[in-house]
Specification:
heterodimer; A: Rossmann fold; 30% helix; B: alpha/beta; Pyruvate-ferredoxin Oxidoreductase, domain 3; Rossmann fold; 7-stranded mixed sheet; 21 helices
Chain lengths: 336, 620
């Protein structure tokens, strides 16, 4: 007789709520891939929790038949910290967007990464504020014309990968909403990582910022515009015709007909220091191909593990808390 | 170690027995006045006196030396009777420098004793205190019995055998002052000797110097002809039991730990350091063996949000702060409210608005805790009335939060937080358990309805990890029962009203208000840390034959179910508050009563006589 637990299918992770994103939104693909990832990695519905902030992407938890919290703008990492610190056995995912994570929630984003709480963060980057109907975001390019910036935006954008690396993230990756196989693979890697894993997903907002990532998605340009990172492999792109070589401290694009593969930069996602990952994060199209895949994946104790270890240690050292001992410690006196 | 009785012989001078004494120790913020005050308090409590304290220190860690801004004070009343305040007028004032003298002298009774360190009244000291004349010579101190003591030079002389540098020797002069004060009031030095041993165990030469300074101060009192007699304060008649001193923030932390223990919960605190609330974080972080997890968040908002996250996971979740932090937490508290999760939010109030007066006390956050969130968002609000009461308030708050599935706000203030009083140690086995249950199966056929309510309108606290109870919560309005997002107009009205009703129901669960004093005439309604001053004032007035009763509110939201009836019995209502009249406004609005305010916004607690005068002005 088989004692195997029933295996959940992607559809088992769908809630009974209608999905209300605009037709054609990149969020649909990320939602679909998430269900696949949970099914493939053998996750249970009851031990999975999605926590989001505010924005289009943040409606995500309502569509998953797991536990979930649609919290307040920018603060999802803080809710996740309270939950995961007290319930480390749960599989916690934070769903956020470019405005949610990098603007109103910039502080929490930075701190969850440095603490290395064992959760997975997916940032849906569409470089626009969709839910408030089209203002520029902290990842919009300078000059973006929106309702709030009729003469073009003037603030310099943030690069989410660079920010994450600077904030001491232990796992940093990038993928693309329509690159289904790559997205699934990257999410599985994130899920397996102990510590905070961060994925920036290039996500298309077909209503307010349509086509912003086209260069990385279109057949015509994507081979030139993206570079798939693989640990221990030389950095090759454009169907094997070009590579990235280091020239002093700077990367440069080289023609593989003229340069041997051995002279290229090799990817090392496990490097102790984050210089290589940071250098890769600065590569932007069209000067360079934009790397996708895992920039950095290093081991570091997680916050939830350590906060619980301190409790375990304190109990081992001092015994389980005894109220009478607590109250009676120090000077006391009796009144007869 | 020196044997106390040999080295600190009891006085041979006559001793006058008095029922109570109020002493203030004032000096530079580096002079160790808080330490001296704490020792005097502990020692007095150990000798059986009732005690109440009022530490008062500058917001700056080390304000410029010798300036008025840098004056740090510690007031303690110790008494043979039950007392409720640190006292009004001072029986004794110890001043370590001119700045301390000039800023504190006004509170000394005309019959009081002024003890000054006469070594610190040089021209440079006067200049730092912005004084043109020496107050010891220009008549300022004339009305008072002044004892000038060359504390600095005598301390240097006393500690000379230890070979300490002059700089270090001078730091012992608070122990000299302590020795003198202890001698004057016949205090036991044993606890302080123990304290010195423990505190300076790794610096034996400093420990020895402090012991020598303490002894020199004691002997100075015995030798000098300035003191013809000493004073003694007999033990107070407190109810039988074992006592200890507690400070408000400490009692609050212990109450929280106790509440977690008796509800079989692990405690999670999300907090960001802020004066005067940080000591709750410090205290809780010491007790991890009680299953306490403390998270020092990146900001106030993350602190409250982490608490909501922990509450979702099933912990007893807490966030602590003061006014500026509570302002930042508003949206997070609102989410806790709409998620209908139990948690505790603590506001240790300080002077506002904005950064205000961080180290001073005030009661000006009441409106904010009652109404300071977007939407119609009432929450239960409970206020502690004294340092030891913080313990009981913490437990009661968690009882309500977990029963009604609602965040509860606890109000304390700087005066309570840093004040100390004796606390009768409770027997942990006698606490009534707080029963909390989490569902483990669907509650509607095969479905789980996360917002299906019980008789208290509380929803089930279903925890992540429970099979078949998967559900999503969020800040969007939810359909009652299913918890699904709902924009239905009728449902929204129903939900807003239901959340309000739930808070009203708390009034049926908690104790009704009790009246102390007269049952007609004038009614004094107070809340929070003004209890002691109001209680003492009403006793004083009643003794003088004035018809005045007193209701002290523990719950501010909801009000006690009998408050309206009580108010009707009186002709006049007086509401003393350390704010512009916040409770007064709410009472006027709710009960249509012509409540008069007695308002003080000076960063200081009420004195008893201020309340007495306020009562007399309207009670006529």
């Amino acid at each position: 007789m088989s004692t195997e637990l029933p295996v959940l299918k992607p559809a088992d992770f769908a809630s009974d709520q209608d999905v209300r994103w605009c037709p054609g939104c990149g969020d649909y693909s990320i939602l679909a891939q998430m269900k696949k990832v949970l099914a493939e990695t053998g996750k249970t519905r009851e031990n999975t929790v999605f926590i989001s902030g505010i924005g289009c992407s943040s409606r995500f938890p309502y569509y998953m038949n797991t536990y979930g919290m649609h919290s307040i703008h920018g603060r999802a990492p803080a809710f996740a910290t309270g939950l995961k610190s007290t319930r480390p056995e749960l599989d916690v995912w934070v769903i956020t967007g470019d405005g949610d994570a990098l603007s109103i929630g910039g502080n929490h984003f930075m701190h969850i990464l440095r603490r290395n709480l064992d959760v997975n963060i997916i940032l849906f980057n569409n470089a626009i504020y969709g839910l408030t109907k089209g203002q520029y975001s902290p990842t919009s390019k300078v000059g973006t014309v929106t309702k709030s910036t009729p003469r073009g935006s003037i603030d310099h954008p943030l690069n989410p990968i660079s920010v994450a690396i600077a904030a001491e993230a232990s796992f940093v990756a990038r993928s693309i909403d329509t690159n289904i196989k790559h997205l699934v693979k990257t999410m599985i890697r994130a899920s397996e990582h102990k510590g905070t894993s961060f994925i920036e997903v290039y996500q298309n907002c077909n209503v307010f910022n349509d086509g912003t990532w086209d260069y990385a998605k279109n057949k015509a340009t994507k081979e030139e515009a993206t570079l798939v990172l693989e640990h221990g492999k030389p950095m090759v792109f454009a169907k094997g015709t070009k590579g990235i070589r280091l020239n002093g401290f700077m990367p440069e694009v080289v023609d593989l007909e003229k340069v041997a593969q051995d002279d290229l930069l090799f990817h090392d996602e496990k490097a102790d220091n984050s210089q290589l990952a940071f250098l890769l994060s600065r590569m932007r199209y069209p000067e360079f191909p934009e790397p996708i895949g895992v920039f950095r994946a290093v081991e570091r104790p997680s916050y939830d593990q350590m906060i619980n270890q301190q409790v375990t240690d304190a109990r081992a050292d001092k015994g389980d808390g005894d109220l009478a001992k607590l109250f009676g410690a120090g000077d006391t006196w009796s009144v007869k | 170690m020196i044997s106390a009785t040999d080295q600190f012989p009891p006085t041979s001078k006559p001793s006058e027995s008095v029922s109570g004494v109020t002493v203030r120790l004032a000096g530079d913020s580096g002079d160790g006045m808080q330490l001296l005050g704490t020792q005097l308090t502990n020692t007095s409590a150990l000798s059986g006196n009732d005690v109440a304290t009022f530490p008062d220190f500058p917001a700056e860690i080390r304000a410029p030396r010798g300036t008025r801004a840098g004056v740090s004070g510690f007031q303690v009343q110790f008494s043979a009777e039950e007392i409720f305040t640190p006292g009004d007028g001072l029986d004794a004032l110890v001043c370590m420098n001119p700045a301390a003298l000039i800023t504190n002298l006004g509170d000394l009774k005309k019959t009081g004793i002024l003890i000054v360190n006469s070594d610190s009244f040089e021209a440079k000291d006067l200049k730092l205190a912005k004084l043109d004349e020496n107050p010891l010579e220009d008549g300022t101190i004339e009305p008072y019995r002044t004892i000038k003591v060359a504390m600095t030079s005598m301390t240097r002389g006393a500690v000379e055998p230890t070979g300490l540098s002059v700089k270090l020797a001078d730091r012992c002069k608070n122990f000299f002052a302590m020795g003198l004060v202890f001698w004057l009031y016949g205090r036991d030095v044993e606890p302080t000797l123990r304290f010195i041993d423990k505190k300076f165990s790794s610096k034996p030469e400093i420990a020895e110097a402090n012991r020598l300074a303490l002894k020199a101060g004691w002997h100075y009192g015995e030798t000098t002809e300035d003191f013809a007699s000493t004073y003694s304060v007999p033990a107070a008649e407190l109810s039988p039991g074992t006592y200890r001193n507690v400070m408000g923030n400490q009692a609050l932390a212990w109450g929280l730990i106790t509440a977690a223990k008796i509800s079989n919960k692990e405690l999670f605190l999300g907090s960001y350091p802020i004066t005067p609330a940080s000591d709750i974080l410090h205290e809780l972080s010491k007790h991890k063996n009680f299953g306490v997890r403390t998270f020092q968040a990146e900001d106030e908002i993350a602190a409250v949000c982490s608490a909501v996250g922990a509450a979702f996971g099933g912990s007893m979740a807490i966030t602590t702060s003061s006014g500026p932090g509570i302002a930042l937490k508003g949206e997070g508290i609102g989410l806790g409210l709409i998620l209908e999760l139990p948690m505790i939010v603590i506001d240790v109030q300080r002077g506002g608005p904005s950064t205000g007066l961080p180290t001073k006390t005030e009661q000006s956050d009441l409106m904010m805790t009652m109404y300071g969130r977007n939407g119609d968002s009432p929450l239960p609000v409970i206020a502690a009335r004294s340092p030891s009461d913080c313990f009981d308030v913490a437990i009661e708050a968690w009882r309500v939060a977990s029963k009604f599935m609602v965040p509860v706000i606890i109000m304390s203030d700087g005066y309570i937080a840093n004040g100390a009083e004796p606390w009768k140690i409770p027997d942990p086995s006698k606490f009534e358990k707080i029963e909390i249950s989490h569902p483990d199966k669907p509650n509607d056929g095969d479905n789980f309805l996360p917002y299906k309510r019980d008789e208290n309108l509380a929803r089930p606290w279903a925890l992540p990890g429970t099979p078949e109870l998967m559900h999503r919560v969020g800040g969007l309005e939810k359909q009652d029962g299913t918890g699904n997002v709902s924009y239905d107009p009728d449902n929204h009205q129903h939900m807003v009203e239901t959340r309000g009703k739930k808070v009203d129901l708390v009034a049926e669960f908690v104790d009704p208000a009790k009246v102390e004093g007269s049952s007609s005439g004038t009614l004094v309604i107070s809340w929070g840390g003004t209890y002691g001053a109001c209680h003492t004032a009403i006793k004083t007035c009643n003794a003088e034959g004035i018809n005045v009763g007193h209701v002290h509110l523990r719950w501010l939201n909801p009000f006690p179910r009998n408050l309206g009836e009580i108010i009707k019995q009186y002709d006049k209502v007086l509401v003393p508050e350390l704010n512009m009249g916040q409770l007064g406004s709410i009472l006027r609005q709710k009960y249509l009563v012509d409540a008069k305010g007695l308002n003080k916004i000076k960063g200081k607690p009420f004195q008893v006589n201020e309340i007495v005068d306020g009562i007399k002005a309207i009670a006529k």
